[in-house]
Design goal:
Layout: H1 4-25, H2 27-39, E1 58-62, E2 65-68, E3 73-76, H3 79-82, H4 91-101, H5 113-125, E4 129-133, H6 136-151, E5 155-159, H7 197-200, E6 203-206, H8 211-220, E7 225-230, H9 246-256, E8 260-264, H10 268-271, H11 276-281, E9 287-290, E10 301-305, H12 307-314, H13 328-341, H14 344-367, E11 373-377, E12 380-384, H15 393-397, H16 401-412, E13 416-417, E14 427-428, H17 435-453
Parallel strand pairs: 3-13, 5-6, 5-7, 7-8, 8-9
Antiparallel strand pairs: 1-2, 2-3, 4-10, 9-10, 11-12, 12-14
Helix pairs in contact: 1-16, 4-13, 5-13, 6-12, 14-17
This protein binds pyridoxal-5'-phosphate.
Amino acid sequence: MLPAADQTSLLDDLIQSEERRFLERAPKAGVFAELASRNLPGGVTSSWQISRPRPVWIDRGQGSKVWDVDGNQYIDYHGGYGAMLAGHAHPAIVAAVTERVRKGTHFSQPTPDVIDVVEELVDRYQQPLWRFGNSGTEATMDAVHLMRAVTGRDYIIKFEGAYHGHHDAAMVSVWNEDGLGPEHRPTPVAAGTGIPQAMVDLTLVATFNDLTLVEGLFQEHPGQVAGVIVEPILQNCGVLIPEDGFISGLREITRRHDALLTFDEVKTGLTVGRGGATRFFDVVPDIVCLAKALGGGLPISAIGGSEEVMGAITDGTYEQVGTFNGNPLSMAAAKAMLTEVMVADTYVHLKGLQAKMRAGAEDVIRRHRLDAHVATAGAKGSVIYSSEPMRTYRDFLRIDGRYAQAAWLYQYNRGVFLPPWGKGEQWLISVQHDTSDIDRYLETLDEFAATIAG
Ligand SMILES: Cc1ncc(COP(=O)(O)O)c(C=O)c1O
């Protein structure tokens, strides 16, 4: 690669020229952005739809492709932040939802599809009891409430840099880069405004891959920690695979302290494999949280737990509620997803595509001598612009985000749609992607690498 100063100006220039190209390619999106900004704060429906230089406006999706409002076609690796594992308009999902929509879409009472959904979940994630919600945030919020309700303790432990949704207990030490404290002993900090310090104080923060610190936090708060919430493969930081023994170590520590362990499998749940991180690491937590891909593109979440934990719902100690919980459309889609789409052969197909993607990206990195590596987990993966593997969130923070931003723009302008949040996000390969889609990503990566290698 070029000397640091040359690299800096090359990257800045590249981002600028690709931003210009981005705006020129989508004039209609400019009109929508202008109209939307009148009545939608930031011109979008969720703040994470804002991207530089302008939000992407989508018209439709089919299979592995999406089309923007200007008619440009893209291979979709964004997948709606990892939810579209089935790809767009998958025939099984379309059929299930179409049939259901004609029979009514909402009653706030259970419908028979939930029986099949739960049967599959019990088998896959080794948890006997399940409830539903509508988003990952609801799932992890219920998990935290349950850990507190069951143990009668108030503190929880989370890991620095892990995103578990936008409820108060979870909005600690994620995104915010100020006041993080020393690396060996992170200071809990609110992720943004609107989170009372009193809530932040109840969330203890540990470093991913550091079991000693987790044990230390338990010892500093004897009999007061309800449990640990962990995303077993840390995403929202690229892809960060835990070191051997870390996940099983958390199981051992939580048991020893009579505390509970929650796996936030909102991202990993269906994408890593048939039984998510639970089966991948062969560690069974007390609570599993699912969302995103489970609904095949419809909003849904699920929490599964042991008899001990979910018994608190059965006996009314904790009321897990929500008007749209178990919504018939989401249940019909989830049933199709679990019984027709994400079956054994599908995982074999995904594994083949991911192997090709990984080997191809590694080859590009080697040939162009980039300071980068590839990390993958099931259908998800990322080029991480650092030659050293990441162990912690601080390693992630040290990576220059401009590489990922430039790569995102470069791919987007050439018909490959990756998640707009640069270095934090991953590609998702859907079941409807094929080898030509992978080739296209790799060709564009190759061109990008040649450009930044100078
Ligand atoms: C690991 C993880 N947990 C929870 C959430 C929150 O899910 P939602 O956006 O559906 O509320 C996310 C969202 O990106 C996530 O990545």
